Amino acid sequence: MKTAYKFRMYPNRLQEAQLDLTLETCRHLYNTALADRKNAYETEGISRSYEDQAAMLTVERKNGNFLGIYAHCLQDVLRRLDKSFKAFFRRVKAGENPGYPRFKGRGWYKSFTYPDSETGYKMEGSKLTLSKIGTIRIFRHREVEGKIKTCTIKKDLLGHWYAVLVAEIEDAPAVEPTTTIGVDVGLKSLITTSTGESIQYPRYYVQLEEKLAAAQRSLSRKKKGSANRLKAKAKVAKISKRIQNLRDEFLNQVSRKLVDSADLIVFENLNISGMLKNHHLAKHIQDHAWGKLIQFTQSKAAKAGKIVELVDARYTSQKCSQCGIMVPKTLAERTHACPNCGLNMDRDLNASLNIRTLGLRGRAYRDTADNQPVSEVGSPGL
């Protein structure tokens, strides 16, 4: 299993100048390689591969170009472009209408990577040494577990530098589930669990929306290229960063609580991109960040040897969790009242119980298909 560790960097002026030069050189190489692929195909009908362009890069370096930048970082730029083209053609083949890989304008290429395991970089204590750049002080707020595989250097909109280290750690021994929890996500409550617990979301974006809008209006009135525009841009970025940090901290706390509460956590398999087409709710759906909550829970569960299941949650709010009949409701109806068995409860709680049942059935089906005994996994509501 791979996990990422993000540390703030504090370069001096010379180091920051070299970091900016490296980032700008990588952007230039990306655009040059993209133009080369485009021209080769349009003029000669040739499709350039990563290997072709890597060989051309070697020739360029022998001619004295790109010597101030670590070679493996430059090779990673070409790999990024190659991945973009492979993704483009894969989507075309699937009948989709994807956008062609784009040139990166100034400020739109935000990171470069040391792609090999502890090659070109070294971390000792609160110092990170980067080849061709130097030894930079970092805020190491936690220990890195496992073997470091890659190191990516990023610059955010506020001009802050970060090192993102991806390490590979051994998966925790799998736990045979004895407790299961179903989780229904929503806008009224962030989550409602099959235990009856409901957690409200603080709506950080809504709280800071007016302040962000005012900063964005101020930015739009500033002259392009002026010092005042840069200040206004930094203010917008600062507010956006605060919203993101508050949201991530809260979602980390919720995901930790879920992982600590059960061995098997069952979520809805949501089509969030489709849900965002509802322009009346899109802002609130993005603010609640259900996808990120599921991602955080999956990461923590993997480290603990626990399991996260995603199930098709269609009709879970309509179906009675006790007798199984459909009880149609509008979105405005917040109570599930079954005319058949008399069950009366909050609609989100009813949905979470159905989600839990679907998760257990899915595991039982797979156990049977593998000719393994079906595990007794908890009891309803646990």
Secondary structure elements and pairings:
Blueprint: E1 2-10, H1 13-44, H2 50-62, H3 71-93, E2 111-114, E3 121-124, E4 127-130, E5 134-139, E6 147-155, E7 161-168, E8 180-185, E9 191-193, E10 198-199, H4 204-221, H5 227-261, E11 264-268, H6 272-275, H7 282-288, H8 290-304, E12 307-311, E13 335-337, E14 344-346, H9 347-369
Parallel strand pairs: 8-11, 11-12
Antiparallel strand pairs: 1-5, 1-7, 2-6, 3-4, 4-5, 6-7, 8-9, 9-10, 13-14
Brief digest:
The protein is of the alpha+beta class and 382 residues long. It folds into 2 domains: 2-168, no CATH class; 180-369, no CATH class. Helices cover 45% and strands 19% of the residues.
How would you describe this structure to a colleague?
The chain has 382 residues and is α+β, with helices and mostly antiparallel strands. The protein folds into two domains: 167 residues, no CATH class; 190 residues, no CATH class. Helices cover 45% and strands 19% of the residues. The strands form three sheets. It has a seven-stranded antiparallel sheet. The protein has a five-stranded mixed sheet with strand order 10-9-8-11-12. Strands 13-14 form a two-stranded antiparallel sheet. The longest helix has 35 residues. The C terminus is likely disordered.
